[in-house]
Amino acid sequence: MASMIRIGDFARLAGTSVATLRLYDEQGLLAPAFVDPESGYRHYRPDQLADFCCIGMLQELGFTLREIRGAGDLEMPGLLVKKLKASERQFQKERQKVTQLGLRIRIIQGLLTLTTSDVIILTVPETTVAAIHLEIPTNDQVGPTLGAAFGRLYETLHREGVPPTGPCLAVWSSTPDMVTDEVVDAAVPIAGSLVEQGDIKRQTLPSVKVASLTHTGPFSEFQACHIVLKEWLAQQQCRLNGPYREIYHTPPGDEAVTEVQYPIEPLAKMLTVSSEL
């Protein structure tokens, strides 16, 4: 008994309460090393402090007392691995939330500098482009995928001696609200002929009437253009009529100039055609 510690002293050493130790005993987690049959006093060995600390650490990791009691020494490593994987999944979800929150903040900042009065109507002339057709699974891949495509286009044009005649642009066949399975053509306006190579094609973009809005500022904020253009469409009773375009007048940066063009069609025209049918 000389090496035994009474429950009150053990509780003080462990930084816990006597009630907690009694609960652990009742739950089959940490039984006293010795119980005096006459007095009923519980006594613990000094090495049981390590057991107590392990239980506390497992609780901090989210394990319930039932899970701790049910797992033997051999099963515990497997449970810890499962808990680690679950925590990693949760971390990824929270990181995505933080990323989305940051994006929303940047869009709101962009809205502070744009209104529907900034929208202008243009007739975009027919344009010949060198283009690469892309299908992008998720929205977070858009930037790297477009960047790589533009790099290949400019490299090919330089090698073939075909000069660009304007800034690069993206022609989106998917709607502005899509964030998965997006379909887009990365394009660079050109003059003259171009020998098609692999997935680099020569295309002619048709002349089209568009509602145009230009944003100047961090590239991450220009998505506000889509919100303002949608509001403008509602005000003017128009609809998006075909693939829309994003023109990147300058490289990304604090003073990037990005233009969004929506092909438009009046709703009145649509209603007239529908009534005739």
What does this structure look like?
The chain is an alpha+beta fold. It folds into two domains: 5-70, Multidrug-efflux Transporter Regulator, Chain: A, Domain 2 (Orthogonal Bundle); 116-276, Multidrug-efflux Transporter 1 Regulator Bmrr, Chain A (Alpha-Beta Barrel), CATH 3.20.80. The protein has helices at residues 7-14, 18-26, 48-60, 65-70, 76-111, 142-160, 224-236, 267-276; strands spanning 5-6, 34-35, 42-44, 120-124, 127-138, 169-172, 180-189, 200-205, 208-216, 238-240, 244-248, 257-266. The strands form two sheets. Strands 4, 5, 6, 7, 8, 9, 10, 11 and 12 form a nine-stranded antiparallel β-sheet that branches. A three-stranded antiparallel β-sheet has the order 1-3-2.
Q: Give the class-level CATH name of the largest domain.
A: Alpha Beta
Order of helices and strands: EHHEEHHHEEHEEEEHEEEH
Record field, number of beta strands: 12
- In terms of per-residue confidence, which ranges show pLDDT below 50 for 5 or more consecutive residues? 270-277
By CATH, the architecture of the largest domain is named: Alpha-Beta Barrel
Mean pLDDT: 86
What name is given to the CATH topology of the largest domain?
Answer: Multidrug-efflux Transporter 1 Regulator Bmrr, Chain A
* The CATH homology group name of the largest domain: Regulatory factor, effector binding domain
Cα gyration radius (Å): 33 Å
Number of continuous helical runs: 8
When the domains are counted, the total is 2
The proportion of strand residues reads 25-35%
